[in-house]
Amino acid sequence: MKVRRRLVHRFITFELYANFSADSVKNMANRRFCVGGNWKMNGDQKSIAEICKVLSDAALDANTEVVIGCPAIYLMYARNLLPCNIGVAGQNAYKVAKGAFTGEISPAMLKDIGAEWVILGHSERRAIFKETDELIAEKAEHALAEGLKIIACIGETLEEREAGKTNDVVARQMCAYAKKIRDWTNVVVAYEPVWAIGTGKTATPEQAQEVHAYLRKWLEENVSKEVSASLRIQYGGSVTGANAKELAKKPDIDGFLVGGASLKPEFVDIINARK
Fold this sequence. Notes:
- The chain is of the alpha/beta class and 275 residues long.
- The chain has one domain (2-271): TIM Barrel (Alpha-Beta Barrel), CATH 3.20.20.70.
- It is 45% helix and 15% strand.
- It contains twelve helices and eight strands.
- It has helices spanning 2-28, 45-57, 75-81, 107-112, 123-127, 133-145, 158-162, 166-180, 205-222, 225-230, 244-248, 267-271; strands at residues 33-38, 64-69, 86-90, 117-120, 149-154, 187-191, 232-235, 255-258.
- Helix 3 links the parallel strand 2 and strand 3.
């Protein structure tokens, strides 16, 4: 039964990709490539200054939007070191503006120190800190209302992928966002297969494109055709300078959310993957 289910799944996704890719190619040119660097809980003043200098001195593709997810304690420091054309993002934010929530950061606080973005729903927030789809969606709703742009993360575990549940999982996570988000203008979705984050494993360009194409179809059917055509969907999962160009060629992949490689000089090559 498992083999049959996988074959049926592959047939469905192939048929979806074949029918939908022509529109994706047509709309691809209208979606600005967007690359985010998620530094996670890494860095100190010295290493951050070095990374910021590399990015400041590099010839970056002007057609690619760049956003750096910096540890909260260094956000203002990084903002002052980076050129203004590179955005800065919080790695998390709470769902209200202020209050007795020890250790939390609000979107208003992020804006106050110069951050324009926030990353929400990252797999580590879901798996380690047990954040639910509903809480993440509430955070997204509040961050957007406060004027931040968001990178809204989704993705399946290895167990879920092997069980043929990838589409079910990402649809469930997207459904939670869609219940709270009315205007998708300031949203970028990051599809990050959990099994490919920090493991050295990467979904093949074809595997990544399959899920991205499914997400486009889901958006068309559940949000609107306009949002499906315009929303940028990043791929995240062990992206490197070596594999970025092949991934960037896929019609429904509009950028990357990069972990470990964003701390290294090769991040420049990833930013320039479509140059």
